[in-house]
Design goal:
- This protein has 639 residues and is an alpha+beta fold.
- It has 17 helices and 22 strands.
- The N and C termini lie far apart (130 Å).
Length: 639
């Protein structure tokens, strides 16, 4: 027994011990494998939704079955036009994003914050990023933005970019839309080995050894002699972690490695002490050691201690066998530890908690429609021949001639020979109409797309447009919330990193004026330097207003102004012709408005000059009359 214990001790002594980095890598790999497996359930469904949107709506089995029956492959894509109409309608809506001071609710006080947000929106060409996100949302049920910093000649710039829903994996346990209950978020991408070595030359050996896979697992330098398989992963939440490392971390055929960037939220406990004798009244105890805390309580007797919790966001980049980069507390200014991502979330399956968009609800109706169209077309173009044996000399030739519109057949006298054109029956036509109606009912009606039903009245068409609009409003609300979240994080980054004086201007708005942020000016009274438009001061909320800007709505607004014009003129009030021109679609209207404004200004200056001249003449006449001894009223000011 003693020899056995001795041999076990020697074995443990010679077994390499795991380092903290190795333990962390194993934990990250375990969690990523579980989250990846959960994500793949959604990804498999999403691939079908993408195919149906692209018009690839027949499976291999369905194509083989149609070919065996001689039935044509018919796909009339009713999904893509509806999704595209929703995307176009959303992008046509004019958005006004404004910052509001959280304390006073005043928009004007936060005007320079609004201009800074508009500058970020303009620099990132956010309309293009939003177009990609809304498409991802409509098809897959989620769209992503990433907010990060880039340095342009040492000047920090806030970047907001679209991220494909294929590259983002969220903690499988999330339930809240704002992701505040998620512990981890993963961004992953396939990278060529040579490119990865170029990025991380110090880890060349680890990167090259990561592709030396063996069987179902792999042997890495961090665990010499040990093979990792799916059984090594912790299983929780009824999600199996039995996955192949070759599939998750390595594309051996193309010699690519999955590079994974993880953001992990860690909850921290913080203690504060309050005492009237403290400078500022409050001090943090968490940063003190035991002796310092004891000394503090000895000096400030009766200090009140209270506790709060904050989230710390840590980040790491790793491959299958090595952590390449790690950063702790990447956003210390954010006590919520938010991920640097914003998500537009569509609908969610209650049982699986997986998102989905508009396409899913069309799948069954689209399948039915394709099958009915194929069947009707097949019956229309198919002839059946009923004949007695010996009615024709060559049966195959008779079959080919019967299929021709001008075919000629020679039939033996006295023999039965009939050609049956199997026209579609009423049931087939009814089922086709039913499937077409189901597509209209489950989502966007054709009236919303601009394809009005001529049989319906204008009121009925408007009601169907309103009904369709109500069905897609949740998607629009999700996109607006994602915009607000993205620019909220961007504002936090601006307040943290935009500390120097900065001139911002909006390039896509001719009327917008540049504004200087963090402008240093000298106080003439005290001689001290003050900061105007200081970004770091204050807390702000972002409010988003939207308005539909389509030709129909613009024409309606223009017509309403035209109808109001006579009433305004009759009331004796001047009619604002500039407003009427601005509401029109005439080309060069801005130049015309500028000319009218300039002419009005010139006429006003002329009128003021004439008034001043008349007043001077009146004063002069009054003075001359007084000198001649005439009785004049001292109140006369004009001729």
């Amino acid at each position: 027994m003693s020899q056995y214990l001795l041999s076990m001790a020697d074995l443990m002594k010679n077994t390499p011990q795991e380092t903290e980095d190795t333990k962390k890598l194993r934990r990250w790999k375990s969690e990523f494998a579980l989250d990846f497996k959960h994500h793949e359930v959604w990804a498999n469904k999403k691939r079908q939704w993408e195919k149906f949107y692209d018009g690839d709506q027949l499976s291999t089995d369905e194509k083989q079955a149609l070919a065996a029956r001689g039935q044509p492959e018919v796909v009339i894509n009713r999904i893509a036009p509806r999704v595209d109409s929703v995307i176009g309608d959303f992008l046509s809506r004019r958005v006004m994003m404004r910052a509001r001071d959280r304390g006073t609710g005043d928009f004007e006080k936060a005007r320079y914050i609004t201009e800074a947000l508009r500058y970020v929106e303009d620099q990132n060409r956010f309309d293009e990023q939003e177009a990609l996100t809304v498409k991802n949302l409509c098809i897959g049920g989620q769209g992503w933005y990433k907010i990060h910093l880039e340095f342009d000649f040492l000047e920090p710039e806030v970047k907001i970019s679209h991220r494909s829903y294929n590259d983002i994996i969220l903690d499988r346990r999330w339930r809240r839309i704002d992701m505040k209950d998620a512990k981890r978020l993963w961004e992953h991408v396939w990278v060529e080995i040579d490119d990865l070595i170029e990025l991380y030359p110090d880890f060349k050996q680890e990167i090259e050894s990561s592709v030396e896979m063996v069987g179902e697992g792999f042997t890495g330098p961090s665990h010499p002699g040990q093979t990792w398989t799916g059984d090594d992963y912790a299983i929780s939440d009824n999600v199996s972690a039995d996955t192949n490392d070759l599939e998750v971390f390595l594309d051996k055929g193309r010699k690519r490695i999955r590079l994974i960037n993880v953001w992990e939220r860690v909850q921290k406990r913080i203690e504060f002490a309050f005492h009237p004798g403290l400078d500022g009244g409050v001090v943090e105890l968490t940063k003190m050691d035991k002796q310092e805390i004891s000394d503090f309580h000895a000096i400030y007797k009766g200090a009140q201690v209270f506790t709060r919790y904050r989230w710390e966001l840590n980040s790491g980049i790793f491959i299958a066998n090595k952590i390449l980069e790690e950063t702790l507390d990447v956003r210390p200014h954010d006590s919520d530890g938010k991920f640097p991502f914003a998500r537009a979330l569509g609908k969610v399956e209650h049982e699986t908690n997986l998102p989905y968009g508009m396409v899913k609800q069309y799948i069954d109706a689209q399948k039915e429609y394709n099958k009915r169209r194929s069947k009707l077309l097949h019956k229309t173009n198919t002839n059946q021949i009923i004949m007695e044996e010996g009615a024709v000399i060559d049966v195959e030739r008779a079959r080919k001639e019967a299929a021709k519109p001008d075919g000629v057949l020679v039939v033996k006298p006295g023999k039965r020979f009939e050609i049956n054109n199997d026209d579609p029956n009423q049931t087939d036509v009814f089922m086709l109409q039913l499937s077409s109606g189901e597509i209209e009912e489950v989502g966007v009606a054709k009236e919303f797309m601009g394809n009005e039903n001529k049989v319906m009245s204008g009121s009925a068409i408007e009601k169907r447009q309103i009904a369709s609009d109500k069905m897609i409003r949740p998607f629009y609300a999700a996109l607006r919330a994602a915009r607000r979240d993205a620019f909220g994080i961007a504002l936090e980054e601006m307040q943290q990193f935009w500390t120097s004086q900065k001139l911002v201007s909006i390039t896509d708005d001719e009327n917008a004026k540049g504004i200087v942020l963090n402008q240093r000016v000298e106080n003439q009274m005290t001689g001290e330097v003050e900061i105007i438009n200081n970004l770091r001061l204050g807390k702000y909320d972002i409010k988003i207003d939207e308005d539909i800007e389509t030709p129909n709505v613009r024409n309606e607004n223009f017509n309403q102004l035209v109808q109001l014009a006579p009433a305004i003129v009759q009331s004796g009030q001047p009619f604002p012709i500039e407003a009427l021109i601005g509401a029109s679609d005439m080309p060069g209207k801005q130049d015309l408005i500028a000319m009218i404004t300039a002419e009005k200004q010139r006429q006003m200056e002329i009128a003021q000059a004439n008034a001043m001249t008349a007043q001077a003449q009146a004063v002069a006449a009054h003075a001359g009359a007084a000198q001649n001894g005439q009785n004049v009223s001292p109140n006369v000011t004009g001729g």
